[in-house]
Specification:
59 residues, Ribosomal Protein L30, Chain: A, three-stranded antiparallel sheet, 3 strands, 29% strand
């Protein structure tokens, strides 16, 4: 299963580890989107910054 991750809130004023997590997911600007395989590593990153993201499952 894959997940489509979209950055919907800004990283301005966020902690440095949250900013690095956003970058590691391949997201740069607001409304940028990336598709990842749903493995435990990626899901942990998504959970860490879930308040900044919109996540959709892709079959």
């Amino acid at each position: 299963m894959k997940v489509k991750v979209t950055l919907v809130r800004s990283t301005i004023g966020r902690k440095p580890d949250q900013r690095k997590t956003v970058t590691a997911l391949g997201l740069n600007k607001m409304n940028s989107t990336a598709v990842h395989e749903a493995n435990p590593c990626v899901m942990g990153m998504i959970n860490k910054i879930s308040h900044l993201l919109r996540v959709e499952e892709i079959k």
